[in-house]
Design goal:
mainly alpha; single chain; DNA-binding; 71% helix; 3-stranded antiparallel β-sheet; MarR family transcriptional regulator
Length: 151
């Protein structure tokens, strides 16, 4: 069993060491995730703004972590921060046209890359990969829940 665990960790470690964001010349995952949240919010609720706190809650991360990523996105021109006129403690975040473009371009690049990657697989292998990945994730999630119940 230890051999299987080592094999799995070896694969995970190698995947983590890949720096596809740099190789593909796209925004890092955290920045893309925030842009995606902002884009979806602008599509589903036009004219309404999302707060920094809302983003932090959705991603289950701290406000300082979100602020660092927002600062990077702001420097790249992908977002704009707006302060509430009635309550200056509230900051809203809006995706800019450059942010839309960066997100769209990144999605296009990732899609093309993954299409090339999966071209090395038979269709049934792709389905098996997704099936087994989901099964592994579900099993790990279930076991983690059980661990949390143990006093």
């Amino acid at each position: 069993m230890l051999e299987k665990i080592n094999r799995q960790y070896g694969i995970i470690r190698k995947l983590k060491l890949l720096n596809l964001y740099d190789s593909l010349d796209i925004l890092p995952h955290g920045e893309l995730t925030i842009l995606d949240i902002l884009w979806k919010a602008s599509e589903t609720h036009p004219g309404q703004y999302i707060t920094v706190s809302d983003i932090a809650k959705q991603l289950d991360v701290t406000l300082p972590a979100i602020s660092r990523t927002l600062r990077k996105l702001e420097m790249k021109g992908c977002i704009q921060r707006l302060t509430d006129r009635q309550d200056r403690r509230i900051t809203y975040v809006v995706i800019t046209e450059d942010g839309h473009t960066a997100l769209s371009d990144s999605i296009e690049i990732i899609t093309a890359f993954m299409n090339r990657v999966f071209a090395h697989f038979k269709p049934e292998e792709i389905e098996e990969y997704f099936y087994l990945s989901k099964k592994l994730l579900d099993s790990i999630t279930e076991e983690e829940k059980l661990l949390k119940r143990i006093p």
